Each structure stands twice: as C-alpha cells, then as structure tokens.
Amino acid sequence: MASCHALSRIDGEIVGDEVDLKMFELSEWKLENSEQSDKAVLQVSDEDGNLVNVLRAFDFKSELARMSVIAQWETGCSIFTKGAPEMVASKCQKSTVPRDLHLVLDQYAEQGYRVLALAQRSLMDADLSEAMIQPRSRIEKNLSFVGIVILENRLKPDTSSVLRELNLDAKVRTVMVTGDHPRTALSVARQCGIFQTAKDTPAIICEVQRGKNHGNVDGGISFLEVGTVEKKRLRRADVTRRLLYDRQGKQCNIVLTGAAFRALFAEHSEQKRLSPDSSTAIFISQLLKRCTVFARMSAADKTLLVRLMNNEVGSLVGMCGDGANDAGALREAAVGISLCGDEDGEVTASLAAPLTSRITTISAVASSMKEVLSSPQCGRFHGCLVHVSETTLVSVAALQ
C-alpha cells in the first residue's frame, strides 16, 4: 500500500487516484521527493526513516485490471502487485491463493464493498538487473497471494435524487458502467435507485462461467438470478423467454460483466452476419437494451458499448466520466461530459470530452441538459452512462 501506486507530489500536495491516496494514508508512510534520485521513480519512507525505492512501475491498465512495481530497500527487493482479485489471483502460484477466495469476494461484494487483491514476489539481487528489462508479462507471474483490501462504496450525496430527476422528469434511461465486481455494482445500483423496478425485483447477473468443465453450455455464459435472499441458476433459454416473451421480462434487472459483454458481442457479430433475424441475434440485442449495470468493464469495453448503443440499439448516448479509462467512451458518445477535478485521469477525461464540468457528480448531467434544452435545436438523450459512486477505505483483511 505504501509503494504500489502512482501518487506524486505537486507543490507540496500528494495527488493521484483517490483509492491510492486512501490506501497510502492508511499505511502512514511518507512520500519522498524522488527527483533527488537518479534511479527511483518513487520513494517512500516509514516513521523510522527506512527508505523504499520504486525502481520500475507498471501503471494500472483497465484491460489488465492491475498495476505493479519493483521496489527495493536496504535488506531486500520485491515485486508488488495490486488489482482486481480474479486478475491478481490468476498471476499467483495456486498454492498461495485461498480456496474460498471467490466465495469471500462474493460475500463482500454483495454487501456493496469494493475489493482489491495484493500479491508479491521476492527478488534476489541477481534477479533484479534482469527484472529491470523484462517485459511486464514476465514480471507479473509466479506471485504469492498476500490478501485483500476492502473498500466501502459510498454514494455521492446527490446521486439518488439526480437519477430520479433524469429517469422520471427527463425520461432519460440511465446505465451504470464500472470496473467493479458485478455484485458490488449490483449493490450500489440498488442503493442509488438506478433500476426502474420494485426494490425486491431480482437481478440476472450474466458472466463468463468459471472453471474448465463448463464446456460451451449457453455459449460459456452463466446466468444467475439474484434476489434479495435467494439465488437461482438460469439457462439461456429461460432468460431468452423472459426477455422476449414474458411480461416478467419487463421487470428484469440485468447485470452484464465485461467478459460476458465481449463474448456476446463476438457472437452477435457472427449471428448478424449469418442470420440477422435469428433468435440469438434478437436475444443479444434485447439483452443490451435491457441491461442497466455493466461491471468489470475496461476502457475498450466502455468505448465499444457506447458505439453499440449508438449504432445497434439506436440510442443517442450521452456519457459522463471522471477518469482516463473513460476517455475513449467520452469521445465516442454523442455528448461526452467530463467531470473534471484536478487529478491526472480527470484531466485526460477532460481533454477527450467536448464538455467539461467542474461539478464532479452526475448533477453535472442534469444541469448541462437544462442548458441544452433551452436551445431549439437540442436533441434528447435516450441513454446516459453514469458513474454513481465514490470509494472510501474501510479496512484491510488477509484471507486465511
């Protein structure tokens, strides 16, 4: 937590990603001025003055869902990695990954917590020089799983009221797109009221099946119906019938993961080429139209989603975002609004978006629409992809 981040000091103030800032504050370490070092890209020290030099950093990438650093101190050297638990665990030695990891992750996610995983690999002095020139793929492997960081997703104060205004008054369909775990995203969606259904309406989580033994059942996509208490596995035929034929389909809350989104997009493209009117092509199109929450989405996924909604679903899409991962989608949207503060990622989003707001909540969308609606040549948003949560650090827990 003290060294695996992309924080920097500007005019005496530490700036960077909010999650990195919270985790660094909890570590109680100090960020040093690394400009005085000709080797370190980052330097941190503890309360006793022990110095850790970050010699090489691999920045967070949404498609990889992790970041890593090579850090050295007086008595040792290690690779430190943090990111999405399933991605970090895939780079770890299996013997170090707790068997109940996915179960524990689901439990925390269902309570609305965001979870990051930590891993490390010690380097001998003889390995360091080689590690400094190896590609990232060689560095982030054979790690040892260390534990998880649990973060609380707190809604921004005006989120629920603005969503009601957009949905009910402006008749705007609002969709949440996030990099978080699908069950975390589902919990936040229920809290903020983005679903236009009764509170006890179940949600269907569509994700790529885990494990190697699922074969190609339902195209490798699993469908889990999650109620307030009960859970039930569905077949693709069940979901198809509900979406296309049952009245109950209008009451479906759909949560789609990035991996499932990519798989369905590939299948949709093939089906559209072979048989545009097939039930499969119609099913996937309806799934996109009905989906309210997209989770574990990378920057490329967000961009593709906006393009699909513009071209395939037939919506005029507005996008608001506050990070570098949103830049492509902001450019692709009919109207892109950057919620710009002072962070590097927010500046990147601002450069990509045609509109920039210093209001860093989705109230910027409502206020911008009110301004635009005063113009006789305005259009109407039929889809608006929004970010609705901010993250605060709660605790750090290691899995046994």
Give a written overview of the molecule:
The chain is α/β, with parallel strands linked by helices and 400 residues long. 34% of the residues lie in helices and 29% in strands. It is built from 14 helices and 20 strands. Strands 13-12-11-14-15-10-19-16-17-18 form a ten-stranded mixed β-sheet.
Unreliable spans are 212-216, 379-383, 387-400
Number of helices: 14
Mean pLDDT: 80
Shape: globular
Taking strands numbered 1, 2, ... along the chain, how are they ordered across the largest sheet? 13-12-11-14-15-10-19-16-17-18
Main sheet record: 10 strands, mixed
Alpha-carbon distance between the termini? 19 Å
- Structural class based on helices, strands and sheet pairing: alpha/beta
Instruction: Using the CA coordinates, give the radius of gyration.
Output: 22 Å
Helix content, binned percent? 25-40%
Percentage of β-strand residues: 25-35%
Number of strands: 20
Q: Which features characterize this protein?
A:
400 residues, 8-stranded antiparallel sheet, 20 strands, globular, disordered C terminus
Please render the helix and strand layout as text.
Elements: E1 8-10, E2 13-15, H1 18-27, E3 30-31, E4 42-45, E5 51-61, E6 66-73, E7 76-83, H2 85-90, H3 101-110, E8 113-122, H4 125-131, H5 136-139, E9 144-155, H6 159-169, E10 174-177, H7 182-192, E11 203-208, E12 221-226, E13 231-234, H8 236-244, E14 253-257, H9 258-274, H10 279-290, E15 291-295, H11 299-313, E16 317-321, H12 327-332, E17 335-339, H13 344-352, E18 355-357, H14 363-373, E19 383-386, E20 389-397
Parallel strand pairs: 10-15, 10-19, 11-14, 14-15, 16-17, 16-19, 17-18
Antiparallel strand pairs: 1-2, 3-4, 4-5, 5-6, 6-7, 7-8, 8-9, 9-20, 11-12, 12-13
Helix pairs in contact: 3-7, 9-10
